[in-house]
């Protein structure tokens, strides 16, 4: 007992300061793919490079788009693009309230350059009702709708001494009856669809729905098939989408804060 | 052909009296036996098991569009725990052809319990009848799936989403008697855990019978790979399971490289093996922390989670992903190790070694925790052998098997490469599985240091041709953190994926969990479950 206490004192505080202080992901970290300014539209990699089908349009069309909700952050598009037309960004705070905000759209200018259109802002406005009832704290029920367990383990990591989301008033509860919302991982498999609906319905209103990872946000690599609904949006109304495969713990914290309209707490 | 394969061929030849064809394959040292009559599978299985082989996996394929116009079953066997060491790295395949309209074959599950789920899966997904199966209830497809529709048949369009039909309640085994209660748990659990349904039949707190129902996370991922190039399919396989990303990605790549006839440069093999051991290390560290959670010892849980976090941050520095995704690729690896990364790995491994030692000391000196761990969740060696249990669960029950030694892969094939020293224990309880993980984590750290000290120079990746040879088969075993995972891959006429099948370690081990939990009390079940720490996603696919 004494050794444990002494060891804890010697260790000191290991908890990160995020979100009040920014977090710097390591050099090899791959954020969302982005268009390098000034590259030719025709130099953009074809949709076939993307294993999850996040890229659409291309050289023979006037439009080109990358669906960040579907992106695996694997970096294959950047690897296979001529003259580095696409590169992987460094940003991990990618959560959004609407699927359209996660669409990177590119048009071909008159002289054939790729022009990235402005993306919609992530949307900080939270429904007044949610804000008034839930306040600043958020008690979430985790709901695995058929994930590969990577997103699940990142939710577990939020409770470790390093991220310790309880310091932010965020916690995971055992029963949907005790929850303010559900945090969902996975594309919603056929075998879980009933359980997903029932768990959601058991949460008292108002309730928030947070989709974590590419599978929940869009179907991801799993897509739509005999066994999968192809994303949580097919089954429940989503309030916040957190892209990633899986999103790193701080990206999930960012998304949860977005759900309760607390983003202004960053960079105080 | 290797000597043990020749001996097996002779004994099968005499047993089957000319009713079988023999050829090497899929790998040069392996043997494939074509049985002329499906019912001979019983005799052939008996002969192989009598010679010390154990059942490893069953692969069903739909070959309607080929000249054979049939369904095929491949029963794959490997040298079992009874085989004297060193075991030869061989696989024996029994190949059976079944009629497309009435696919029927005798079930081997009564004699080979390990085949139980495999046969039920082929029944669900291919519509094959295994006559005499002791428990032919559906496994993968749940209530409301239309009868007569088999999603892994080639005729079935993967995009099809049949409506949910009215269904009766799933027939669980009901235990009757005075004071017997049924406690249903899940599929959605109270913690951050993957989904599965457990039905406990209890008297008081004592578990008389536990029936798990899994495959809630069945995503149809094997079907998803069909028709893709191996380069695209790789990303699907890498995402079958989060915490086995390296193992499964590597297994798929090694199967691909077998078909393509590509040798991975030794630097690439060393980096792959490094990733494999880092994956084992962060899993074992996290699992050692998770077991105390089942005993309510939160100091241990926090210490374990912190260890795991440091290792996952290291993963992100090495590969840009906390689950080591994006490193392995067909032909080798995509990212090199720099001197900075080597230093980074060395320092995190040093910290982990110290933290692990301290955590194990804390657990070992805490009588109230030990009281929960000792004699809880005992898996008898006989049961473990019968069910084909693998990995930590097998080794903690005294079974000396490890695919890194028995089916070498990565840098373990190199003559001068590192050698794994396999650790075993005999108690078979939660405590044994915990200690075994600690010993294996230390062994992984030794291997990581050995690998880092001798990273050969040269390229990290070989070129794998865009289109692979048609109708090639690749077969390999990878020791994942949970045990041996088997990968079977075949290309179609255009060199794309025709069929890919994974038998994960968790798939082999799940049926052992109810046996280990029997006669324990319900409050100990989380502890038993965490000591196996099986993935649902690997099992369900």
Quick description:
The complex is a heterodimer of chains A (268) and B (541). Chain A is an alpha/beta fold.
Structural overview:
The complex is a heterodimer of chains A (268) and B (541). Chain A has 268 residues and is α/β, with parallel strands linked by helices. Chain A folds into two domains: 33-91 and 100-116; 128-263, Rossmann fold. Helices cover 21% and strands 17% of the residues of chain A. Chain A has seven helices and eleven strands. In chain A, the strands form three sheets. Chain A has a five-stranded parallel beta sheet with strand order 8-7-9-10-11, sandwiched between helices. Chain A starts with a helix and ends in a 9-residue tail after the last helix. In chain B, the strands form five sheets. Chain B has a five-stranded mixed beta sheet, with helices on one face. In chain B, strands 8-9-10 form a three-stranded antiparallel beta sheet. Chain B has a three-stranded antiparallel beta sheet with strand order 13-14-15. In chain B, helix 5 packs antiparallel against helix 6, helix 7 runs antiparallel to helix 14 and helix 9 packs antiparallel against helix 14 (430-453). The two termini of chain B are 35 Å apart. Chain B has two domains: 1-7 and 29-156, NADH:ubiquinone oxidoreductase Nqo5 subunit (Beta Polymerase, domain 2, 2-Layer Sandwich); 221-540, Cytochrome-c3 Hydrogenase, chain B (Orthogonal Bundle). The radius of gyration of chain B is 23 Å and the shape is globular. Chain B is of the alpha+beta class and 541 residues long. The mean pLDDT of chain B is 93. The chains are: A alpha/beta (268), B alpha+beta (541).
Search tags:
heterodimer; A: 268 residues; alpha/beta; Rossmann fold; 2 domains; five-stranded parallel β-sheet; four-stranded antiparallel β-sheet; 11 strands; B: 541 residues; alpha+beta; Beta Polymerase, domain 2; Cytochrome-c3 Hydrogenase, chain B; five-stranded mixed β-sheet; three-stranded antiparallel β-sheet; globular
